[in-house]
Design goal:
By secondary structure, the chain is an alpha+beta fold. The protein is built from 12 helices and 12 strands.
Length: 471
């Protein structure tokens, strides 16, 4: 609708300008012909009344005074030339037409065109000072219609009135079409809203569809046949999705428990084996009469306590991983907290850089430090064999996020391990349970953040964490 209104306004404006131009052209042509016919009537009347023989040679004498009278009566200037194109008389005083550069002799082109014209009339069109200029040439004849001279009537087109009228008309037309355009925009908006209201409802519901939550069915009153089919298909999909989500959640829980049970069993078995060997060895070698029995008992107890501490550490690690961090809307200066978190490390190759002194975000202080320490510990473990180890921790703002980057020049991560690096129990180290980065990812995602890594084997790794900040 809007395009049609705009197109119609452009077409009508173009047609109007063209029509005004044609009307102006026809008006000036008709006016020139009338003026020319009036002059010719007066010339014929003068030739009938004169006592001179109407010949070319006598035209100068015949129109010596009459040419000025005719020009005054008709309020128009004209010129009389002989048949060879030489100027005989002009209605303008000599001083004026010399200043106006009136041609003293007609060009051969004008004479030839006049001679070869069917109606013994030639119209010349030119431009002067930005205005259109026309000049008509016709023969002056005697009583026997024999040509004795050439009448030249110069005519300047004055379009100021028409141009003014055209401008006013276009302004009025433009006002009307601006009003029509606003009406068209309003109607287009109302109609499109009416047509697409059902589609918008379906679109909103689809955008709000998630596998992890219960989704509502779509209910639209009196939908069209096509929209009704779309709504029915969506509602059927929602029903199937809910069934699949329940089955998937159950399967994932069972799988998670199986994996967790395997991991816990594996980690607990590791300290149990040395504990068993220690007890068996102590049982075989224990001698109450041995003078060093007390020191051996102490060593035996120390070994058991170390293994028990290991099992306690394993249990604590699994407990920390399973515990989801609660969102604490505590307003923190992330730069300050990260700097304080790095103070617990004594390595002199750890450097800290911040683009700003203060970047505010709502986070839990303990969880933020836990994320930082896990990433820094991983970086420290990646640089033990590097000649000149270096770890750089940076804090900066990026749009609506605060970015924390931990970069090292360590051994790097192979491409085959990058996709698994955040999975629980996955580790590339010979020790540890692989729960650190999994816990970090859980914490970051709890606060609607993101964590990414870039790494090149043999050159180093960069972990980048982003949290929403307060702008």
């Amino acid at each position: 609708m809007i395009v049609l209104v705009l197109l119609a306004s452009v077409l009508i404006a173009g047609v109007t300008i063209y029509q005004y131009g044609e009307q102006s052209k026809d008006y000036h042509e008709d006016r020139l012909e009338r003026k020319e016919e009036q002059i010719k009537e007066n010339i014929r009347y003068t030739l009938q009344r004169t006592t001179y023989v109407p010949t070319t040679d006598n035209l100068d004498l015949i129109f010596k005074d009459e040419i000025y009278q005719i020009a005054d009566v008709l309020n128009v200037n004209f010129n009389i030339y002989d048949l060879e194109g030489g100027l005989i008389r002009s209605s303008r005083p000599k001083s004026k037409f010399q200043n106006d550069s009136i041609s003293m002799c007609l060009t051969p082109e004008v004479l030839n065109n006049l001679k070869n014209s069917v109606n013994s009339r030639y119209l010349e069109e030119k431009s002067a000072a930005g205005d259109k200029y026309q000049a008509s040439y016709t023969y002056i004849t005697d009583g026997k219609f024999k040509p004795i001279g050439i009448l030249n009537l110069p005519y300047f087109e004055d379009n100021s009135f028409n141009d003014h009228e055209l401008k006013e008309f276009l302004l009025r037309l433009g006002g009307v079409y601006v009003f029509m355009l606003l009406i068209a925009i309003l109607l287009s908006y109302i109609i499109s809203k009416y047509i697409t209201r059902s589609l918008q409802t379906v679109s909103d519901k689809m955008n709000a569809t998630f596998l992890t939550k219960q989704n509502k069915r779509i209910s639209v009153g009196n939908p069209s046949e096509e929209i009704g089919k779309l709504i029915n298909a969506y509602n059927a999909m929602i029903d199937e999705l809910e069934i699949s989500a329940v089955k998937l959640a159950k399967s994932e829980r069972e799988q998670a428990w199986r994996e967790m049970a395997k991991q816990v069993a594996h980690e607990i078995k590791n300290p149990l084996t040395p504990m068993r060997l220690t007890v068996q060895s102590f049982e075989r070698k224990f001698d109450p009469e041995d003078p060093d029995v007390r020191s051996k008992l102490t060593e035996y107890s120390k070994t058991l306590i170390q293994q028990i501490d290991t099992m306690s550490s394993i249990a604590g690690a699994f407990s920390n991983f399973a515990e989801m961090p609660a969102q604490q809307n505590e307003t923190l200066n992330v730069v300050k907290i990260v700097k304080l978190g790095l103070d617990i490390f004594n390595e002199n190759y750890i450097h800290f850089i911040a683009d700003e002194e203060e970047i505010i975000a709502k986070l839990d202080r303990t969880q933020l430090i836990r994320v930082l320490t896990n990433l820094v510990k991983n970086a420290i473990q990646a640089v033990p064999d590097v000649v000149d180890p270096r770890i750089l921790v940076t804090v900066s703002s990026e749009g609506n996020y605060v970015k924390i980057a931990v970069a090292d020049n360590g051994i790097g991560i192979e491409d085959e391990f990058k996709e698994k690096i955040f999975e629980p129990k996955f580790t590339t180290k010979s020790s540890g349970m692989g729960l650190g980065l999994g816990m970090v990812k859980t914490i970051v995602e709890t606060y609607n953040g993101s964590i990414d890594l870039t790494s090149q084997p043999g050159k180093g790794t960069v972990f980048t964490v982003k949290f929403p900040r307060i702008v």
